[in-house]
Design goal:
Chain A has 345 residues and is of the alpha/beta class. Chain A has eight helices and 20 strands. Chain A has helices spanning 11-22, 38-42, 55-66, 136-144, 182-196, 216-224, 277-285, 325-344, and strands at 4-7, 27-30, 47-48, 53-54, 72-75, 79-86, 89-95, 100-105, 107-110, 114-116, 133-135, 159-166, 201-206, 229-232, 237-241, 246-253, 258-264, 266-271, 273-275, 313-315. The chains are: A alpha/beta (345), B mainly alpha (278). The complex binds iron/sulfur cluster (3 copies).
């Protein structure tokens, strides 16, 4: 049996490769970066919402199933540059910086994932200009190392704000969708910081809190046990005050119906999810249709979210839309099963 | 003293109070409406919802408040564009009526809210639709709100401009322009200086901006007549309207005389000529 190509080594791709191996099928796992683990690894995610389980633990489990598994052939720093039909499957060109190689595969799984929204595009928040305005993926790294310090002067912040939906639910940047995880991750970060440093005040500016399903528990606890404060309204601009020493967030408190202007030591932006570069490339490579949002679209999303509509080609994870890690892992399994069935007979 | 203190406030006569039907709004703390007000409010509401611009301008709202964040009026008044949009989208006849009383006049039509809105609403536009209805129906509070602006209105209607070019000086508009935005000092301007930005006592003004040709003035007024603006104004302020009509009639007469003189002069030189019939 020819191997099944799994494109992308994030949670969905790892899960797919691990599942194929457990079914007894060979998997060819191709990742463009020089590590496995995708965005969670890249940005050093700390604890994962909602169970506050360390990301390393969750990823570690997936990685253990893949790394050193004789059925999984892993190719790092490799991209697929060409693809054509070959029998029932595909012939793909794998390119590294030095080499170009052609392989035949029985089926393909696209687990090309997402990119975080580039917060510089919301210029009114001054991200990239004001050092103390952080993207929440950067804060993940700080929390992970337990070094919550203001980038500008290394001081311990007294008051931190989170702004939700940055680059999401926003017609002006063209991203009208919800990122699904920004609320939960921000609240989780606030909780983590309050747990370790109760002297730091945490404010979350929100339009709606979308800790859907069982995640809602995190939201409740954040108020009840950790005293995280929630203010309804999206900050409209961040400026500098006190001679450039402190950030000021301006917005409307839409519950009290009055403008607010609050100084903060650090402001964290919950940047949304966009179709990743790899996902866009994959769409071109396989001539796949994309939705109005730019994500790949399953043929019949509600019945079979992993079928692309092209025989032998399957989709998994955030390539088809914003997704949390457990959902990506589930889809990886589903895609693996479908690919296995297809490539086997 | 804030400008809002100069705005007229609603007063209610005892007769009004007695004539009003059951106190539907009592629990909300709002004052009762008379039967006449209630019926006018309903008419305005129906017209508002039927206006094709409503559908075009009001799309939906996330209640994010970003429109209010950038709104200069929200800084000074009990006013927010988000509230106006909410009233436009979800309000009823009574809430719309309430907004017409004073709030819609707080907006300075700078369109910042539109620029900020993440949903693509035309908030400034829908506010101006509310104003238009309010003027068209001669809402009493509108009459009083606009009363102090008779001078501005007269200039707008007769010469088409209210501010002359040399009024636009940085010193008079300290809260405007590139040096004000983004600075936390933007709103630290003393009330005296802010006051200067309101060209009521027209400091250092040349009169040239208001010296338009008679013909321009007449064409402008013809537009106001043809488009129904003059009728709208008549409903609101009949006295001012009559005064304007007088001014324009005088100018028309002036123009006719000048034309006759001119024609006569031309005819003595080269026979009969056709002229503009303004
Ligand atoms: S999950 Fe929360 S932060 Fe993300 S777009 Fe939805 S509402 Fe906004
Ligand atoms: S147009 Fe009116 S409502 Fe909108 S920002 Fe300007 S003053 Fe505020
Ligand atoms: S900016 Fe738009 S979406 Fe946000 S509150 Fe204002 S009207 Fe609603």
């Amino acid at each position: 049996m020819n191997p099944v190509l799994v494109l992308g080594g994030g949670p969905a791709g790892l899960s797919a490769a691990a599942e194929l191996a457990s079914l007894g099928a060979p998997a060819l796992l191709v990742e463009k970066e020089n590590y496995l683990g995708g965005n969670p690894k890249r940005w050093h995610y700390s604890l994962l919402a909602p169970d506050l389980k360390p990301a390393e633990e969750v990823l570690g489990e997936l990685l253990r199933k893949v790394e050193g598994n004789p059925r999984v052939e892993t190719r790092l720093e490799t991209t697929v540059t060409q693809v054509e039909p070959a029998g029932k499957g595909f012939r793909v060109s794998l390119r590294t910086r030095e080499t170009l190689e052609t392989r035949e595969v029985g089926a393909c799984i696209l687990a090309t994932g997402f990119d975080h929204f580039d917060s510089r595009r919301k210029y009114e928040y001054g991200y990239g200009r004001y050092p103390d305005v952080l993207d929440f993926k950067e804060l993940e790294g700080m929390i992970h190392d337990d070094r919550i310090l203001r980038p500008s002067d290394g001081a311990v912040p007294k008051r931190i704000a989170w702004i939700l939906c940055v680059g999401s639910r926003d017609l002006q940047v063209g991203n009208t969708w919800c990122c699904r995880m920004g609320c939960a991750v921000s609240i989780k970060q606030a909780v983590e910081i309050r747990q370790k440093h109760p002297e730091i005040d945490a404010y979350v500016y929100y339009m709606d809190i979308r800790t859907y399903g069982l995640w809602e528990d995190l939201y409740w606890k954040s108020m009840q046990q950790y005293g995280v404060k929630f203010i309804r309204g999206r900050i409209g601009q961040i400026t500098m005050a006190e001679g450039g020493k402190r950030l000021v967030a301006t917005g409307e408190d839409t519950i009290l119906s009055r403008p607010t202007e609050v100084p903060f030591d650090m402001i964290v932006l919950a940047s949304g999810m966009e179709p990743g570069h790899g996902t866009q490339e994959a769409a071109k490579l396989f001539h796949l249709p994309v939705g109005p949002e730019g994500f790949l679209t399953p043929k019949v999303a509600d019945i079979n979210p992993v079928d692309s509509g092209i025989p032998g080609l399957y989709l998994a994870g955030a390539a088809t839309g914003p997704k949390a890690i457990p959902d990506s892992v589930t889809e990886g399994m589903g895609a693996a099963l479908r690919a296995f069935q297809y490539a086997r007979d | 003293m804030s400008v809002v203190a100069h705005l007229p406030h609603r007063t209610l006569s005892l007769a009004d109070e007695e004539a009003s039907s059951p106190p539907a709004m009592e629990l909300t703390g709002r004052r009762r409406m008379s039967a006449a007000e209630r019926s006018l409010a309903e008419t305005i509401y129906q017209e508002f919802r039927a206006d094709p611009r409503h559908e075009e301008f009001v799309l939906g709202c996330l209640n994010c408040g970003e429109c209010t964040t950038g709104c200069p009026a929200a800084r000074f008044y009990d006013f927010s564009p988000r509230e106006m949009l909410q009233i436009a989208a979800n309000g009823d006849a009574t809430t719309l009526w309430d907004a017409l009383q004073e709030k819609i006049w707080s907006c300075c039509q700078c369109y910042t809210c539109n620029m900020r809105c993440r949903f693509g609403n035309d908030i400034a536009g829908i506010i101006s639709v509310m104003r238009e209805l309010s003027v068209r129906h001669g809402v009493e509070s509108t009459r009083r709100t606009l009363a102090p602006f008779g001078r501005s209105l007269t200039l707008l209607m007769t010469v088409g401009t209210q501010v002359s070019s040399d009024m636009i000086q940085p010193d008079f508009f300290r809260d405007w322009g590139p040096f004000a935005t983004g600075s936390d000092k933007a709103w630290d301007v003393s009330p005296e200086i802010m006051r200067k930005a309101i060209p009521i006592d027209v400091l250092q003004t040349t009169r040239s901006a208001w010296e338009v040709s008679v013909q321009t003035s007449l064409e402008l007024f013809r537009i106001y007549e043809e488009t129904g603006v003059l009728d709208m104004l008549r409903g609101l302020d009949p006295d001012l309207t009559e005064m304007l009509v007088d001014i324009i009639e005088e100018r028309r007469e002036e123009f006719r005389e000048a034309r006759e003189t001119h024609r006569a002069r031309l005819e003595t030189m080269r026979g009969p000529v056709a002229t503009f019939q303004g």
